[in-house]
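Write out the 3D structure for:
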Amino acid sequence: MKKTVIFSLMFCLFFVFQTNAQYKFKDVKRLKTTSVKNQNRSGTCWSFSTLSFVESEMLRMGNPATDLSEMFVVRYCYSDKATKYVRLHGSLNFGGGGAGIDPIYVIDKYGIVPEEVYKGLEIGEESHVHGEMDEILKSYVDAVIKNKNKKLTPTWHKSFDNILDSYLGEIPKNFKYKGKEYTPKSFAKEYVKINPDDYVTISSFTHHDFYKSFVVEVPDNWLWAEAYNLPLNEMVEVMDNAIKTGYTFAWASDVSEDGFSFRNGVAIVPEDDLDKMEGTEREKWEKLTKREKMKQLYSFENPTKEKEITQEMRQKAFDNYKTTDDHGMHIIGIAKDQNGKEYYTVKNSWDTNNIYDGYFYASKAFVKYKTMSILLHKDALPKKIKDKLKL
């Protein structure tokens, strides 16, 4: 009996210690969004993140919560990408990846449909598994380019689309939603009601002039879409202003860093600069093994000191392939940890299997360092920056 009481007390103290050691976040501002989705085993984060953003835009404009079809976007992008890939004799990245602007392109050109109308699940799986489809589509377009006929057949693209139909399903020409008949184009115009011309992409790199647009040189930018280039501090100013004035934004980033932990619900850039350590602190650090250093830096047990991110650090990481077009997500708010440090609240598309039910918190240092670009409504920009960009 006495041992049980002592054990229970020890367990409670341990639990309290563990709880107190963890990150604790409090919303500064959290904007409306739809439910967390699951891209599963598909490279379609770009479609999930931007359509999540579009769904939040619809909520911002007073429309009801709507689940839009990510695979409708994927289907059309794959088809158009194939045409461009063949025209360029294969000198274009071809696969399941894409850029944040792609869903806006599809909505503008082809329209959009609700998820319940087009799920893209034709192969008997409950969620998206694209490995076989991706490989077959790539093999097909490579065969078209390498063919020995010395000219393309007039049916090659129709056959390509037939493969897409077999994996994702045929695109509906007409459908009924909430008692009304639509086409994909009329649904985009009458129900979704976003104007593609209202959306801009922002980035921040020094190999192009600031306050001008440039084609973002990443493999998945198959549309060769342009982004407006801002200094780092102004890109962050745009992000903060967006959330504070009621606008979410789609976020293209690199999550391959050790400081990114979806399971723990945080993304950080811990300070590990030996030159800044002095005395006993430096001596203790130097005695640690590499494994011990990594465990200390990336324990994710409590808030830690982070690096000061500069424009030069961003550029170096991009130039050396340390920052790539790795993952698309949706930033929907700003929060603070127990020490008062600000983070961005991020909605992911990896289901709800983490401690924040599919969301995580990215420190400002991480976002400054690892942002490739953001996509947002142009009215989310501060007026002085809009004027500089002549928007």
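DSSP finds 13 helices and 13 strands in the chain.
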